[in-house]
Specification:
The protein has 171 residues and is of the alpha+beta class. It is built from 4 helices and 9 strands, in the order H-H-E-E-E-E-E-E-H-E-E-H-E. The chain binds a DNA duplex (12 and 12 nucleotides) through strand 3, strand 4 and helix 3.
DNA sequence: GGGACGATTGAA
DNA sequence: TCAATCGTCCCA
């Protein structure tokens, strides 16, 4: 089993290649009680490097975002508005801070709603998707059509970065 | 030590 | 339209 699990060669590419490629992939989460949850990824956003003013890495490396500077294939989670955990997948190679925010999966729309369903919290910070036994992503041979739009909730980044079409949504 | 703010959500 | 709710970051 798990021969379909995505590995380093998938994650350690440019975030603008990885983000749309994650659409239609299967996110697997094994809960503490052993229940296995499977959902297809339906919506993502790309956050790319220190120049992208909407990306947390644009303010330099901090305790919160340091995992973005590590190798692709790790998990970046952080708390937003004091109550929602955001699930991100780190991409590219060590030293290049990029990540994909998982904004939607089948049956659950919204980044805060899906992490609540999947029981994702701070304990997943820097979790390795290529080795973990409680969360990983599989290729089921599905590459859906998708559309792009500007990213959500990043108006503070200025018109250029707030309007660049780096949100990817399954049709 | 203090204060402002955020890659959201659901209810009014 | 707006409150909930708190870790992180920046300034003093």
């Amino acid at each position: 089993m798990n021969q379909n699990r995505l590995k380093a060669d998938f994650y350690q590419r440019d975030v603008l290649l990885v983000a749309p490629d994650l659409l239609g992939k299967q996110l697997v989460r094994v809960l503490p009680n052993g229940i296995k949850l499977n959902h297809l990824i339906t919506e993502v956003e790309a956050y790319k490097g220190i120049d992208d003013l909407a990306c947390h890495a644009s303010k330099g490396k901090t305790e919160r975002n340091k995992v973005m500077f590590m190798q692709g294939g790790l998990v970046y989670v952080y708390l937003i508005y004091g109550m929602y955990w955001m699930l991100n997948v780190v991409t590219s190679v060590e030293g290049v801070p990029e990540a994909v925010l998982i904004r939607g999966i089948t049956d659950y729309s919204g980044p805060g709603r899906l992490t609540k369903h999947l029981q994702i919290d701070k304990s997943f910070y820097a979790e390795n998707l290529m080795e973990s036994s409680r969360i990983w992503i599989e290729d089921i041979g599905f590459s859906p059509e998708f559309t792009t739009t500007p990213r959500i909730g990043v108006d503070y980044a200025g018109s250029y970065w707030a309007n660049i079409p780096w949100r990817f949504i399954v049709e």
